[in-house]
């Protein structure tokens, strides 16, 4: 399953977070896979994509960074997967 984790920096201090990441790495537990990261232009938030089957690993990762960051964790699917779930990509039926 994929998760988007929206990260805000406590006290608007992104530098402290990036310093720890440079020194210690992402601190990701085994079983959690980093896919991508995007940062807002004002450096106020990041949007990270992870794959993980055990949500407690996500919780563990957030706890490791909670002194520097706030988190919003959202399970996500691709647009194509959402469309398929809503049957929007089903072939049009033909009228008899």
Walkthrough of the structure:
- This is DUF3303 domain-containing protein.
- It comes from Azorhizobium oxalatiphilum.
- Pfam families: DUF3303.
- With 96 residues, the protein is an alpha+beta fold.
- It has one domain: Alpha-Beta Plaits.
- 30% of the residues lie in helices and 33% in strands.
- The chain is built from 3 helices and 4 strands; from the N terminus they run βαββαβα.
- The protein has a 4-stranded antiparallel sheet with strand order 2-3-1-4.
- Strand 2 and strand 3 form a beta hairpin.
- The radius of gyration is 18 Å and the shape is globular.
- The model has no long low-confidence stretch (mean pLDDT 92).
Structural topology:
Blueprint: E1 2-9, H1 14-24, E2 32-39, E3 45-52, H2 55-65, E4 69-76, H3 79-85
Antiparallel strand pairs: 1-3, 1-4, 2-3
Essential attributes:
single chain; 96 residues; alpha+beta; Alpha-Beta Plaits; 4 strands; 30% helix
Q: Can you count the helices? A: 3
Determine the strand fraction and express it as a percent band: 25-35%
- Poorly predicted regions are none
Distance between the termini: 41 Å
CATH classification, class level? Alpha Beta
Side-by-side strand order of the widest sheet: 2-3-1-4
Q: What would the average pLDDT be, to the nearest integer? A: 92
Q: Helicity, in percent?
A: 25-40%
Order of helices and strands: EHEEHEH
Task: Provide the domain count.
Answer: 1
CATH architecture: 2-Layer Sandwich
Examine the coordinates and then state which fold CATH places here, giving the name of the CATH topology: Alpha-Beta Plaits
Number of strands: 4
Question: What shape does the CA trace take?
Answer: globular
Largest sheet: 4 strands, antiparallel
Rg, alpha carbons:
18 Å
Could you say which structural class the secondary elements and strand pairing correspond to? alpha+beta
């Amino acid at each position: 399953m994929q998760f988007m984790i929206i990260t805000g920096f406590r006290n608007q201090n992104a530098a402290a977070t990036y310093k720890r990441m440079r020194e210690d790495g992402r601190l990701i537990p085994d079983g959690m896979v980093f896919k991508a990261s995007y940062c807002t232009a004002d450096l106020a938030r990041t949007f990270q994509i992870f794959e993980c089957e055990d949500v407690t690993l996500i919780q563990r990762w957030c706890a490791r960074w909670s002194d520097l960051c706030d988190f919003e964790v959202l399970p996500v699917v691709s647009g194509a997967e959402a469309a398929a779930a809503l049957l929007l990509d089903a072939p049009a039926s033909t009228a008899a």
